[in-house]
Every structure is written in C-alpha cells, then in structure tokens.
Design goal:
The structure is a single chain. By secondary structure, the protein is mainly beta. The protein has one domain: Roll (10 Kd Chaperonin, Protein Cpn10, Chain O), CATH 2.30.33. The protein has a 6-stranded antiparallel beta sheet with strand order 8-9-1-4-7-10, with no helix packed on it. The protein is elongated, with a radius of gyration of 15 Å.
Length: 97
Amino acid sequence: MNIKPLFDRVLIKAVEVKEEKTASGLLLSPKAVTGEPAMGEVVACGCGKYAANGELIPMSVKVGDKVLMNKNAGQTIKVDGEELTLVYESEIIAVVE
C-alpha cells in the first residue's frame, strides 16, 4: 500500500535506538526512557501548508531526512505490517544531520 500524506503532514518510520542499561544492570527499552525525543526517518511528506493569503509554504523536511520528534507526537498506523507515525511538520523538533 502506498500512502501520501496531505498538506503539512509527514509519515515517519522509527529508527531503532539501542537499549539502555541502568547502573544495576537492568535493560530499559527506548520506549521506557522518558524525556528523550524519538528518532525517525521521513518516508513520505505532503506538499506543504497554505498560508492565509493562499500561498503554499513548502515543507522543511524531505524523504530520507532523519528527524527528532516527541515520543507521543502524531498517530501510529500500520502499513503492510510496518508501524509508522503520521505527524504534522510542526511536531518535528529537529532534523539530524
């Protein structure tokens, strides 16, 4: 299935982050570590957002960009058995270079 986000929405595939270990040796999954943003890769994005005057404001991210976002941002969807997150561009914190 092919998904094309509309307007200023971005489809992101989570990038696996290694597990962290506590001082006592307990393993914490990345989902259990709070306060840190989630990292992902842009797999699709819309055309941009329209300003009040009707002018199209293009997207700041493109397919293939690695990005940081809040862990609770957007909506999680499954496409062909793969878990993806659909967010607004404004929910993206940074592009990782």
